[in-house]
TrEMBL record:
Catalyzed reactions per annotation: a di-trans,poly-cis-dolichyl phosphate + GDP-alpha-D-mannose = a di-trans,poly-cis-dolichyl beta-D-mannosyl phosphate + GDP
Cofactor(s) required, per the database record: Mn(2+); Mg(2+); Ca(2+)
Enzyme Commission designation: 2.4.1.83
Residue ranges of domain Glycosyltransferase 2-like in the record: 8-176
GO BP, sorted A to Z: dolichol-linked oligosaccharide biosynthetic process; GPI anchor biosynthetic process; protein O-linked glycosylation via mannose
Protein species of origin: Adineta ricciae
Any one Pfam family match given in the protein's UniProt record, by short name: Glycos_transf_2
Main localisation: endoplasmic reticulum
Keyword NAD: no
Described function: Transfers mannose from GDP-mannose to dolichol monophosphate to form dolichol phosphate mannose (Dol-P-Man) which is the mannosyl donor in pathways leading to N-glycosylation, glycosyl phosphatidylinositol membrane anchoring, and O-mannosylation of proteins.
Name of the protein in its database record: Dolichol-phosphate mannosyltransferase subunit 1
InterPro entries registered for this protein in UniProt: DPM1-like (IPR039528), Glyco_trans_2-like (IPR001173), Nucleotide-diphossugar_trans (IPR029044)
Length: 238
């Protein structure tokens, strides 16, 4: 009988002291029968997120909660690289800690991966059954416009290239992320573009994306400009 796969959940954090314990509790609820670990990569949050993470480790144990803090805000992509170095899992799960990605979808990601032996499973807001909640009209227009631009120029085989709720086979993740040069929101797109170029098998699961409950959104004008530039650069990626 083959060994059950082990899953490493990477949680980059910055000022998420209110959200982190809620997300961890829900992960434990939905993955109680699935072998897993949670790796928290905190970028020296001034709000005390690291102290909350330490308390969670004391509560659940160092085998379940792995703390790999960094000295400051060094970027999302590098946070995943940092966390993956310590991951024991056969698969990595990346997700936001602001409660926009509900842990209830993780078992569905795992089941979908097993069905087709996929290398990547990504959550999609644009499949039937998916969507967004809590966004104002401006945010919806920005999101739809960004996805339309991405689909028009990159023509990816999936419906939601900018999503950041994904399951990766660890060996492929490590190779892809070592090749990526993008930062911010473009990082997620480049990972998919490079995965397609490498002929990896990708599946989607519909998700409802919920706007953050606690804290402030990190999407600003600078990120939108960088996103547009990134899409154009990825158009010529080989």
């Amino acid at each position: 009988m083959s060994k059950s796969p082990f899953y490493s959940i990477l949680l980059p954090t910055y000022n998420e002291r209110d959200n982190l314990p809620v997300v961890v509790a829900m992960i434990e609820q939905y993955l109680r029968d699935i072998p897993h670990e949670i790796i928290i990569i905190d970028d020296n949050s001034p709000d005390g997120t690291q102290e909350v993470a330490t308390a969670l480790q004391h509560q659940l144990g160092p085998e379940r909660i792995i703390l790999k803090p960094r000295s400051g805000k060094l970027g999302l992509g590098s946070a995943y690289v940092h966390g993956s170095q310590y991951a024991r899992g056969d698969f990595l799960i990346i997700m936001d800690v602001d409660l926009s990605h509900h842990p209830r979808y993780i078992p569905t990601f795992i089941e979908r991966q097993r069905e087709g032996d996929y290398d990547i499973v990504t959550g999609s807001r644009y499949l039937p059954g998916g969507g967004v909640a809590g966004w104002n009209l401006k945010r919806k227009i920005i999101s739809c416009g960004a996805n339309y631009l991405t689909q028009l120029l990159l023509r990816p085989p999936i419906s939601d290239v900018t999503g950041s709720f994904r399951l990766y086979r660890k060996s492929h993740f490590d190779r892809l992320v070592s090749q990526c040069t993008s930062k911010g929101y473009v990082f997620q797109m480049e990972m998919i573009v490079r995965a397609v170029n490498a002929n990896l098998r990708i599946a989607e699961v519909p998700i409802i994306f919920v706007d953050r409950i606690y804290g402030e959104s990190k999407l600003g004008g600078q990120e939108i400009v960088l996103f547009a530039k990134g899409v154009l650069q990825l158009t010529f990626l080989e």
